[in-house]
C-alpha cells in the first residue's frame, strides 16, 4: 500500500449528540466544512475508487438523515454507515496492512470518539467486539466542565471504573497474544510516554501517567510533553478508557500501529476492485452455514440477472451484485421456518453482522428477500435507502420461473420498462406448456397493480 495523499480534520462529531441523540447543528456544520475541504481530492477519481464510511456517531444519531444528505451532496459520493463489528473488522484489516512481520495471533484495540473496538485474530478476525465508550463520549459524560477532580469526586476514577465495567467478560480478548493499539487515543498516549514517538506503551508507564492525570484539577492544567493541543480536550477520557483496558485485560505491553480503519477501508476497497470482495465471501459462508440449496440460488440468480439486463443494459455492477446476493440468500429463512421464511430471512440478513456490508446494503438485501413473492410491502424509506423496483421485479419473476427448483429456459420472455410501468411478453404456447407458472404470473401482475410502476402481462 502506497500512501499518495493524507489529510484529516478532528471534528469530534460525537460531541454534538444531545440526550435525545440529535446532532447539534453547529457540530454538523463543522463536519461539513471539513468535507468541503476534502472534496477537491475526490474530483478526478472514478466513483468506484472512492469509499466514504460513517461510524458510531452516525449510527447513533436520531437525525442523521439530514446531515447525510448534505454530506453526500458536498462530497458527491455516497456515505456508508457501518456497524461497530464491521468497524472492528476494518480496523483489524488496516493494522494487518502495515505488514509488521509474519502473521501472528494478536489483539487489536482502537479507541475512537464514540466507541472502542477490540479484535482478536491472526490472518483474519476470530473475535470482534464494539463497546459504546470513546474519548469524546466519555469526555461529555465525565468531564463536561473540563474538571478532572473536585472536592467531592475524582472524575477520572469514575470514567476508568465505568470503562472497566464495559470490559467485564472480555479478558480472553488479550490473553496470550500480542496486543496492538491503533488510532488517536493510543497514539497520543504513546507519544506522551515516548517523547513524541510512537513507541510501545508499557504497563508501569501508563500506570504512572494515569496517576498523574488523575491528580490534576482540570484538563486545561495538563502539562504533558508530546500532547497535541487539539487532543488535549479528550485526552483524560481517552486515557481513562485505555488504562481501564490495560487493567481489566491485564495487558503488560502494547505496541502501536501506524495504520487503522482508514487503511482498512482502502484495503477493503482494493479487494472489491480486484476480485477479492469480502462481501462475496460473507454470502458464501452464510449459504454454507445455513445449508442453502446452491443450485436453486444459482438458477434464480442467473435468471434474475438476465431479466435485469433486459430492463437496464447499463445496470451498475453494484446493482447486479446486490441482485445476485439476494438470490443467493433468498431461501436463508428456510433454516428456521417454512411458513415465515421470507420474513425471518429478511430479519436475519438485516440484523446479522455481515462482514463487508454497510447498514444500507443489508437493508436493501432484506427488502428484496422479504418481498420475493406475495404482496409487496412498502418499506420505510429514509436517506440512503431507496429500493429499486427493477431489482425487485427481476428477483420475483426469477423465483416464479424456478418455484419448483427446476432449470427452465425463459428465452421467450421479453421484459421491458416503459414510462407507464413494466411489460412482460410471453408466447401463449410457452404458457400452455407451463400452466402453473401462467397462473403465478397473472397473480404477479395483480401484486404490482398498486405500485408506482405496474406490471402488464402480455401474451401472443
From TrEMBL:
Domain Ppx/GppA phosphatase C-terminal: 279-444
Record-linked InterPro entries: ATPase_NBD, GppA/Ppx_hydrolase, Ppx_GppA_C, Ppx_GppA_N, PyroPPase_GppA_Ppx
Assigned keywords, A-Z: Hydrolase
Residue ranges occupied by any Ppx/GppA phosphatase N-terminal domain in the UniProt entry: 4-270
Gene3D superfamilies the UniProt entry points to: 3.30.420.40, Exopolyphosphatase. Domain 2 (3.30.420.150), Hypothetical protein af1432 (1.10.3210.10)
The protein, known as: Ppx/GppA family phosphatase
Amino acid at each position: 500500500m502506497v500512501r499518495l495523499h493524507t489529510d484529516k480534520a478532528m471534528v469530534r462529531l460525537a460531541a454534538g449528540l444531545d440526550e435525545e441523540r440529535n446532532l447539534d447543528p453547529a457540530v454538523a456544520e463543522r463536519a461539513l466544512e471539513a468535507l468541503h475541504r476534502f472534496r477537491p481530492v475526490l474530483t478526478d477519481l472514478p466513483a468506484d475508487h472512492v469509499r466514504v464510511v460513517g461510524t458510531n456517531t452516525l449510527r447513533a444519531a436520531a437525525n442523521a438523515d439530514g446531515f447525510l444528505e448534505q454530506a453526500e451532496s458536498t462530497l458527491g459520493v455516497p456515505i456508508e454507515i457501518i456497524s461497530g463489528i464491521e468497524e472492528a473488522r476494518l480496523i483489524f484489516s488496516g493494522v494487518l496492512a502495515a505488514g509488521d512481520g509474519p502473521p501472528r495471533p494478536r489483539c487489536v484495540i482502537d479507541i475512537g470518539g464514540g466507541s472502542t473496538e477490540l479484535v482478536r485474530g491472526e490472518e483474519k478476525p476470530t473475535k470482534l467486539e464494539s463497546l459504546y465508550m470513546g474519548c469524546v463520549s466519555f469526555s461529555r459524560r465525565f468531564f463536561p466542565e473540563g474538571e478532572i477532580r473536585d472536592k467531592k469526586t475524582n472524575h477520572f476514577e469514575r470514567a476508568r471504573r465505568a470503562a472497566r465495567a464495559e470490559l467485564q467478560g472480555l479478558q480472553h480478548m488479550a490473553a496470550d497474544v500480542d496486543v496492538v493499539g491503533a488510532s488517536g487515543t493510543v497514539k497520543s498516549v504513546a507519544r506522551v510516554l515516548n517523547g513524541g514517538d510512537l513507541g510501545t506503551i508499557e504497563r508501569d508507564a501508563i500506570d504512572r501517567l494515569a496517576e498523574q492525570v488523575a491528580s490534576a484539577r482540570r484538563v486545561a492544567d495538563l502539562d504533558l510533553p508530546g500532547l497535541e493541543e487539539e487532543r488535549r480536550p479528550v485526552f483524560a477520557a481517552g486515557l481513562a478508557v485505555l488504562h481501564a483496558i490495560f487493567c481489566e485485560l491485564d495487558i503488560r505491553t502494547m505496541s502501536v500501529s501506524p495504520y487503522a480503519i482508514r487503511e482498512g477501508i482502502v484495503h477493503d476497497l482494493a479487494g472489491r476492485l480486484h476480485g477479492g470482495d469480502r462481501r462475496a465471501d460473507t454470502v458464501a459462508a452464510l449459504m454454507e452455514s445455513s445449508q442453502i440449496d446452491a443450485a436453486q440460488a444459482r438458477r434464480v440468480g442467473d435468471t434474475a440477472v438476465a431479466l435485469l439486463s433486459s430492463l437496464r443494459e447499463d445496470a451498475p455492477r453494484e446493482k447486479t451484485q446486490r441482485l445476485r446476493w439476494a438470490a443467493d440468500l433468498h431461501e436463508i429463512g428456510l433454516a428456521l421456518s417454512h411458513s415465515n421464511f421470507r420474513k425471518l430471512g429478511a430479519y436475519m440478513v438485516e440484523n446479522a453482522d455481515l462482514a463487508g456490508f454497510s447498514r444500507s446494503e443489508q437493508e436493501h438485501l432484506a427488502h428484496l428477500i422479504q418481498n420475493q413473492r406475495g404482496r409487496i410491502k412498502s418499506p420505510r424509506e429514509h436517506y440512503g435507502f431507496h429500493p429499486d423496483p427493477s431489482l425487485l421485479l427481476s428477483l420475483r419473476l426469477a423465483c416464479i420461473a424456478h418455484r419448483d427448483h427446476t432449470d427452465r429456459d425463459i428465452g421467450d420472455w421479453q421484459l421491458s420498462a416503459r414510462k407507464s410501468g413494466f411489460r412482460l411478453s410471453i408466447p401463449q404456447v410457452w404458457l400452455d406448456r407451463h400452466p402453473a407458472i401462467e397462473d403465478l404470473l397473472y397473480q404477479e401482475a395483480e401484486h404490482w397493480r398498486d405500485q408506482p410502476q405496474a406490471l402488464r402481462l402480455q401474451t401472443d
